[in-house]
């Protein structure tokens, strides 16, 4: 328990200390929100889909969560490079707990980042249709964050240097984001794309945000929860397994 | 007396290269044991295998009665280590690094607080306890690593070139602290060094390792009498001399490398 807590705390401290990381990772969602939200708004409305800004906001929250979560998982590569990883690997504690502490920390950080984006979109005029559901959204945000933090950590356990990092960002995170329905509605997609979207766990996360924030979803909250929970459990299991096999 | 470390036919290969070449040795409980050898001899690789963060290519390791392969968790509960390479979290402060270590190693809060203050004062970092480690110089980081390694009192303490980059005062301080720990709490100390005099002065038993092989082991006196020499340095040169002649690489290069090292060059 203490192990989990102290490693969780470490992630939080590191996050709060890197002001540039907090600010920097708000820039990208803001850009997407303004450029796409306002740029495509009229096209979206003409197509009879309603208010694009409102549609996009949950997607952008999902975007900031997946980026922050995977990044914090992947940060383990830095820990390996700069040596701190050794310190935890030789400690007389269960490696599963180390993994859980790190991942919970990364997930908490990503959830905070998601909340910041929620506040940001509210400043630009976004209104959840029912404020009472916001705590539930936060729980779903945490679940999505946990899923991708675990995925990041699992991948990082397999990489021993930074070179893989850019590859992951370009060939994993970007596709996960663009193919998730964060930017476009899921109904009426070409069959192939619709199929791919169903294999992207982020789709279910963003769907749940959309259901809870703007009452407009595709899969249903129960399905979203089930898929997210199962995939999270699988990634945590995989991550712990790979982590326990790390050699320096 | 019981052996707290038992190593048999330990081998580590990196591709074609054999870094540790079939070594066997024992360390007795409560002993101060030194691994003495030039850079690249395979000291750190051996320590990594003993401390479960690197899998051997072959051979067996028993530490405190536990098998390193099958019971790594039990092995990890038995030792502490100061690595040769940095292993601090640069974003945390000195105090936070110490505290995190104390929690990971289950040092009770009260003892943790006391010892952290004592150890940080002892390496002259108490005044800087709230600075992030990234602001520290190389020497300060090294001192912090040492202090952190001494925070808990395990059955075996591994120190991989602990004195590298330390000033003489801290070095002396550290050794007297360790000898005290060894006497009072029976902590077995296993350290590596490439400084002759350090091995001779501190260690009760020495194993000389070169090119991944243990070329001789025993007390400093035994090593000297076996080679009929007056200093450990001469003993070493005599022992490793044969190895050099067996190698196909240029003998003079190796000699030069040895010479550099014994004059106290680093890395
Ligand atoms: N991960 C690795 N991959 C390839 N070679 C390695 C690796 N680690 C160590 N070596 C090599 O093994 C040899 C022994 O290294 P090491 O154990 O660090 O020596 P020492 O600690 O005695 O100075 C060196 O030649 C080193 O280059
Ligand atoms: Mg070494």
Model description:
The complex is a heterodimer of chains A (248) and B (267). Chain A has helices at 2-17, 19-39, 41-46, 52-74, 76-82, 84-89, 95-123, 134-158, 163-178, 191-198, 201-214, 221-244. Chain A is an all-alpha fold and 248 residues long. Chain A is globular and about 60 Å long. Chain B is built from ten helices and ten strands. In chain B, helix 3 crosses helix 4 and helix 8 (220-227) packs across helix 9. Chain B has a six-stranded mixed β-sheet, sandwiched between helices. Chain B has a four-stranded antiparallel β-sheet with strand order 2-1-4-5. Chain B is globular, with a radius of gyration of 19 Å. Chain B is of the alpha/beta class and 267 residues long. At the A-B interface, helix 1 and helix 6 of A face helix 3 of B.
List its salient traits:
heterodimer, A: 248 residues, mainly alpha, 12 helices, 79% helix, B: 267 residues, alpha/beta, Rossmann fold, six-stranded mixed beta sheet, four-stranded antiparallel beta sheet, 10 strands, binds adenosine-5'-diphosphate, binds magnesium ion
Global outline of chain B: globular
Oligomer: heterodimer
CATH class of the domain at 1-78 and 190-267 in chain B: Alpha Beta
Uncertain regions spanning at least 5 consecutive residues of chain B: 243-267
Which architecture of the domain at 1-78 and 190-267 in chain B per CATH? 3-Layer(aba) Sandwich
> Which chains have the largest interface?
A-B, 26 and 30 residues
- H/E element sequence of chain B: EEEHEEHEHHHEHEHEEHHH
| Derived structural class of chain A | mainly alpha
| Rg from alpha-carbon coordinates of chain B | 19 Å
Fourth-tier CATH superfamily name of the domain at 1-78 and 190-267 in chain B:
P-loop containing nucleotide triphosphate hydrolases
Compute the number of helices of chain B.
Answer: 10
Distance between the terminal alpha carbons of chain A, to the nearest Å?
A: 26 Å
């Amino acid at each position: 328990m203490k192990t989990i807590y102290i490693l969780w705390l470490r992630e939080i401290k590191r996050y709060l200390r890197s002001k540039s990381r907090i600010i920097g990772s708000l820039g990208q969602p803001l850009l997407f929100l303004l450029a796409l939200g306002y740029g495509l708004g009229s096209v979206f409305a003409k197509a009879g889909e309603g208010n694009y800004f409102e549609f996009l906001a949950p997607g952008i929250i999902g975007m900031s969560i997946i980026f922050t979560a995977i990044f914090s998982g992947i940060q383990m590569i830095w820990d390996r490079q700069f040596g701190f990883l050794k310190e935890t690997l030789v400690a007389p504690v269960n490696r599963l707990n180390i993994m859980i502490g790190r991942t919970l920390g990364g997930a908490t950080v990503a959830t905070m980042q998601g909340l910041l984006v929620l506040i940001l979109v509210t400043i630009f005029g976004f209104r959840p249709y029912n404020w009472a559901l916001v705590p539930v959204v936060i729980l779903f945000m945490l679940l999505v964050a946990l899923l991708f933090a675990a995925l990041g950590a699992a991948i990082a356990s397999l990489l021993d240097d930074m070179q893989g990092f850019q590859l992951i960002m370009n060939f994993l995170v970007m596709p996960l984001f663009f193919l998730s329905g964060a930017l476009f509605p899921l109904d009426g997609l070409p069959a192939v794309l619709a199929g791919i979207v169903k294999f992207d766990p982020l789709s279910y996360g963003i769907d749940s945000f959309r259901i809870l924030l703007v009452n407009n979803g595709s899969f249903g909250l129960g399905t979203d929860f089930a898929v997210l929970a199962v995939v999270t459990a699988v990634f945590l299991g995989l991550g712990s397994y790979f982590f326990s096999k790390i050699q320096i | 007396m019981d052996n707290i470390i038992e190593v048999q036919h330990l081998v580590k290969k990196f591709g074609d290269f054999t870094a540790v070449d079939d070594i066997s040795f024992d360390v007795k409980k409560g002993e101060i044991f030194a691994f003495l050898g030039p850079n690249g001899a395979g000291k750190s690789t051996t320590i990594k295998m003993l401390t479960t963060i690197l899998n051997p290519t072959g051979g067996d390791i028993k530490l405190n009665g536990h098998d390193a392969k099958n019971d790594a968790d039990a092995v990890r509960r038995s030792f502490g280590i100061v690595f040769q390479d940095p292993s601090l979290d640069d974003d945390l402060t000195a105090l936070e690094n110490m505290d995190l270590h104390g929690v990971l190693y289950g040092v009770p809060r009260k003892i943790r607080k006391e010892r952290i203050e004592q150890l940080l004062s002892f390496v002259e970092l108490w005044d800087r306890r709230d600075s992030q480690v990234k602001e520290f110089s190389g020497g300060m980081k090294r001192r912090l690593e040492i202090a952190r390694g001494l925070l808990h009192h395990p059955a075996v303490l591994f120190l991989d070139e602990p004195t590298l980059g330390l000033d003489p005062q801290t070095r002396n301080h550290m050794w007297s602290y360790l000898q005290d720990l060894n006497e009072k709490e029976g902590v077995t100390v296993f350290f590596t060094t490439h400084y002759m005099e350090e091995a001779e002065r501190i260690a009760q038993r020495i194993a000389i390792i070169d090119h991944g092989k243990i070329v001789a082991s025993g007390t400093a006196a035994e090593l000297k009498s076996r080679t009929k020499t007056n200093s450990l340095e001469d003993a070493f040169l005599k022992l490793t001399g044969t190895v050099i002649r067996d190698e196909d690489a240029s003998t003079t290069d190796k000699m030069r490398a040895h010479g550099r090292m014994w004059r106290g060059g680093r890395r």
